[in-house]
Amino acid sequence: MNEGDAVHGSARSRRRPLTDARAGAMALAATVALAGAPLAGQGTSYYTVAPCRLVDTRGPAGSFGAPGIAGGGAARAFDAAGQCGISTRAVAVSANVTVVNPPSTGFLVFGPAGAGIPQTSTINFNAGRVRANNVMLELGTAGAFLAAAGNPTGNVDLIVDVNGYFANAAQEQSTAAPPAFNPPPGSYAVHPQVQILSSTPGAQIFYTTDGSTPSSSHGTLYSGALSLNATTTLNAVATATGLADSPVTTGQYSLAAVSTLLLAQMVPQGSSLSLGSGSASLVLSADQASAVLHYTYSNLSGPIVAQHIHGPGGPILFDIDTSVPDAMGGRLWTIVPAGGFSVPQILAALFSGQCYINLHTAMYPSGEIKGFFNVATGNQSFMPPPAPPALPPPPATQTDAARFLMQATYGPTSPADVAAITSAPTGFGPWLAGQFGQPLTSHLAYIDAARAAGETISSNQVMESFWRQAVTGPDQLRQRVALALSEIMVISDQNANVDPEGMARYLDVLESDAFGNFRQLLEDVTLDPTMGVYLNMLQNDQGDPANGINPNENYAREVNQLFSIGLYKLNPDGTLILDATGLPIATYNQDAVKGFAAVFTGWTWAGGDHSDPNNFYNYSPNWRQPMEAWPEHHSPGTKLLLDGVVLPAGQTPQQDLDAALDLIFHHPNVGPFICRELIQRLVTSNPSPAYLYRCAQAFANDGQGVRGNMQSVLAAILLDYEARAATFVPQPGYGKLREPIVRLGHLLRATSATPPADNKWRIWDTSDAGYGLDENPLRAPTVFNFFEPTYVQPGAIAQAGLVAPELKITTDTTVFGAADYLHDIIYYGAAFDPYTIFPNYSSMVGLADSSLLDYLNLVMMANGMSAQMRSILETALADPNFSDPNDATTRVRNLLYLIELSPEYVAQR
Question: Most CB within 10 Å of its CB: which of 125, 569, 613, 847?
Fold first, then answer.
C-alpha cells in the first residue's frame, strides 16, 4: 500500500471488513508507513483496541447513526474520543471505513473537526457498490473527526470500525485526559444533549457555559448529559487525584432559532376543595411573537365559565375564550402588550415561571384549578449516560456517614449513630442490610391497644403512633420511605370519611411494602379500603351508560398520573420524549381513564354478605382488610387501557385488576417516575438525568432479573455517586429543603426527646401555618400532597430551571409559624402539660463551646456548617448574655435554636 492509498484511500480497493488480527496488523502498518512521522513528532504512541463499530448511519438516528452523509460537501462530525475504548487524549484513530450502496458515484473526505475539509478524497465509490478502506482519522475539536461526501444526489451510508488510536504516552502519567464532547460542537437545529467524557479513571469534569474557564474550584461538576437550549460556548476540564488538570476543551454549539416548550400542571387553586386537575403545554415560537396552547382537564365541579393565562399579580395576558381551537385543539396566542405588561415583560415573566393558566367555574369563580408555566426540555432520541467516576473506597468518612443518615433516616441521635457507619470496614452495606431486616411495628396494633385501654379513638392515636416510630423506631429507613410513599400515594383525613383505623392500616401497608416489590405495593394500595374511600374506588359500580351513569374515574386517573407513570412519556433517564412537533407525548388519554375506571369497579368492604347483590351498598365498614370483589357490580365489557392495550370482555374483577396493574407496572415510565419522587424526598430536588437513569436501571432489574425490587431501588438511590460524592454539595442546584415533618423529627431525635411516663407522643396536629409546620402526616389538603414534585418557585429558581417542591409551603406566614412552634419545643417541650415531650440536653450541657459546636455541626448539619456560620455562632457563645448561669441548658437551647432557623440547616445537602 502506498502513502497516497493510506491517507486518501484508493479507488481500486475492494476490501471486505477485516478480521481482528488483520485489522490490527494493517492498521499498525498503515499508520507507521503513512502518518508515523507527523504523529511521532507529537510524541504519540499507538494503542490497539478491540475492533469496535463506532459509526453506522444505517441504524437509528443518533450521534453515530442515521442520517447518512449528505451530498454536496456538507460535513458531519463524529466524536471518536471516549468511545470504543479510545482515549479522550487521542489525536488520531485507525479505522476501516466502508461506504454501503451509495445512490451515485462520488467520494468521501475525512478531516479533523474544527479544521477545513481536505481537498483530496479518502475513499471513492460507485453507485450501488460497497467500498472499504483502512485509514487514519485525525481528531480535532473535542475529539471529533469530520466526514463529507462529494456526490451529486442522496445521502451516503457510512460504517466506521475502529481498531486503535494514537496518544501521547508521557501525558498519561502526568495529566488528566482532556474532556471530549458527544455530539461534537457544531450547528444544530434542535437542542442537543451533550455528553462530556474523560478516559482518565475516576476523573471529575467541571464545565462552564458562560465563557469562563472551568477548574476544580469554578464551574459545575458534570453528572449527566447537558441539554443546551441556546447557542453556547461549552468549556470543560478534567481533574483527577495525583494528576495535573487536563487542558480545557472548548466547543461552540450554535443553535438555530427554535421554539420553546413550557408546561403547567393544574391543581386545585388556593382553598379550592376541587377534585379537578389538568395539564397544559405552551409552545413559544422561535421569534417569540406567538405561542400555541394545548390543555386538558377533568373532574371539575361544573362547566368552565372563564379561562385565562395570567401574569405576575394576576392580570390577564391571554383570554383563552377569545381564541378558536385549531384542528389539533391548539389555541394561538399572539403575544401583545396586555395587563399593563409590555411584550418583553411578558416574555420575561414566562421564562421566570410567573405566568399561570387557570380555569374558572361557577362554584369557584376566582379559579378552580391553576398551574404555573415553566420551561421544559426533552428530546426525540435517547443517549445513555456514561458511568460515573468511582467513589472513594470504604470506610465512610464521618461527614459522608452523617449526610447518609440525613438522607436515609429522620437524622442521627448522636455521634454514636455516625460512628456505627464509619466503623464498618465495608461501608454502608451492613447498615442497609440491618435496616432491610428490621421487623415491622404495627400502627394498627397501637390503635387496638389504645381502644383496649378505654380511649376514644381518633386521628390523635394515629399521630401518636406515627411520631413514636418516626423518632424512636429502629427501622429508620422504613419510616422515611413510608413518609415518602404517603406523600406520593396520598390519603388524607381532610376527607371526613377517612377513619383513624383505616389511616393506621394504610401506614402499615406502606411500611410493609417499603422494602418489598413495587408491584405488590401498587396492588395493596389499590385495594386498601382507605384509599378506596379517599379516591372513590370503594363501591364503584359498573355504571349505566344508557342513562349517562359511568364508573367513577378518580382512582383511574390518579393511579396513573400520581402513583406510577405521570402525564408524559419519559426516556429511561426521566427526560421528556418529544414528538415531531416538539410537544411531549401523553402517557394516556381520556379513553384510557374510562377503561381503567371500568377495571376498578365491583370492589367494596371485605366480609360482606354476597347472598344479595344489593348488599354491595349495605355495608359494615371493614378498615382492616383489602377490599373484595363483587362480580355482579363489575363492568363486563372490553376495556381500553395504555398504549392501545384492550382487556377482553367477560373477565373477573381480579383478572381485570391483575392485567391493568401489570400493564402499569411494566410501563417504561415507572422506573424513572418513582425514582424521581423518592430521590426528591430523600436526597435532592433536582436529580440529574444520569442519576435517574441509574436508579431506573435498578428498578428495571435488581441484578437477579427482578423488576420493582424496592430494596434495590433504595440502595441505588442512597449509594449513587450523586448522593455520596462530596463534590456535589456546594453546587447551587443540589440538595433539598428539609420538609417540616422531617425537620421536627430530626430535632426530636437529635435532642433524645423523652415522652411522658405513659410513652405517648401527643403531637396531634402540626398543620397550622401560623403556629406549626403547615404540614401533618396523612393530612394533605388534596391528593397532590402538600406540594407537587414539579413545583417551581417563580423567579430566580424558575430561571435556573430548578424545581423546589417544599417551597410551596414556605411563605412568610409559615416561616414565622414554624419558628415560633420550634422555639417552644426547644425551650419548653412538645405537646402540653402534663404530657410534655421534653428534649434531653444532658449529652450537650457539659461540652465546651468548641466541642458543642462540633457536636451540633455533626448531628444537625453533617459537618456542613460554613466557616462564616461557625464564626457567628462562636461570637454568640462568647456573649455572656447568651447563657444563663442559673440554667446550664439555656446556652444549648439558644445555640440549637439559631441552627434550627439557619438557611444552612434548612437546606439539606
Answer: 125
Backbone angles phi, psi at 520, to 5 degrees: -70, -40
Cell matching residue 67? 442520517
pLDDT of residue 14: 26
The edge-to-edge listing of strands for the beta sheet with 106-112 is: 75-79, 144-150, 106-112, 123-125
Contact 662, 564 (CB under 8 A): no
User: Is the pTM here over 0.85, yes or no?
Assistant: no
Cα–Cα dist 581/603, whole Å: 42
DSSP annotation string for 877-891: HHSGGGSBTTBTHHH
At position 184, the amino acid (one-letter code) is P
Tens-place pLDDT, residues 675-728: 999 999 999 999 999 999 999 999 999 999 999 999 999 999 999 999 999 988
773-819 confidence digits (pLDDT tens): 999 999 999 999 999 999 999 988 888 889 999 999 999 999 999 99
User: Rounded to an integer, what distance in angstroms lies between the CA atom of residue 43 and that of residue 694?
Assistant: 39
Sign of CA dihedral 630, 631, 637, 642: positive
Residues 6+ apart with CB under 8 A from 875: none
Separation between Cα atoms, residue 463 and residue 776, nearest integer Å: 9
Measuring CA to CA, how many Å separate 103 from each of 106, 289, 793? 9, 42, 54
Unique residue bearing C-alpha cell 372563564: 306
C-alpha cell, 128: 450501488
C-alpha cell at 300: 371539575
CB contact set of 705 (below 8 Å; sequence gap of 6+):
none
Helix (H, G, I), strand (E, B) or coil at 359: strand
595 Rama sector, left if φ>0, alpha if ψ -120 to 50, beta otherwise: alpha
Which residues does 140 contact at the CB level (< 8 Å), separation at least 6?
111, 112, 113, 114, 115, 146
456: phi then psi, degrees, rounded to nearest 5: -80, 120
Between CA 191 and CA 317 the distance in angstroms is 28
- Residues 136 and 165: beta-carbon distance below 8 Å: no
CA angle 111, 114, 117 (to 5 degrees): 40
Query: Which residue is it, cell 420511605?
Result: 481
Backbone angles phi, psi at 15, to 5 degrees: -80, 145
Three cell numbers at 342?
409590555
Residues 6+ apart with CB under 8 A from 6: 30, 31, 33, 34, 35, 134, 135, 136
Give the SS3 label for residue 609: coil
The one-letter code for the residue type at 737 is: L
Residue 621 and residue 575 in contact, taking contact as beta carbons nearer than 8 Å: no
CA dist 827 and 838 (Å) reads: 9
H or E segment to which residue 356 belongs: strand 356-361
- Measuring CA to CA, how many Å separate 475 from each of 129, 173, 452? 68, 47, 26
Q: For 776, how many CA atoms within 13 A lie in the half-sphere containing its CB?
A: 20
- Rounded Cα distance between 643 and 621, Å, is 37
Q: What is the dihedral of CA 18, 20, 26, 30, to 10 degrees?
A: 100
Distance from first CA to last CA of the chain, Å, rounded? 61
Return d(Cα 449, Cα 276) in angstroms, integer: 39
67 preceded by a cis bond (ω within 30 of 0): yes
The rounded distance, in Å, linking the Cα atoms of 143 and 188 is 18
- Distance CA(253)–CA(255), nearest Å, equals 6
Q: How many residues are present in the chain?
A: 909
Task: Find the angle CA(806)-CA(749)-CA(435) to the nearest 5 degrees.
Answer: 85
Helix, coil or strand: residue 800? coil
**Alpha helices (H) along 371-414:** 398-408
Give Rg (Cα) of the chain.
31
**Residue 707 DSSP code:** S
With a cut of 70, list the residues of the chain below it in pLDDT: 1-42, 73, 152
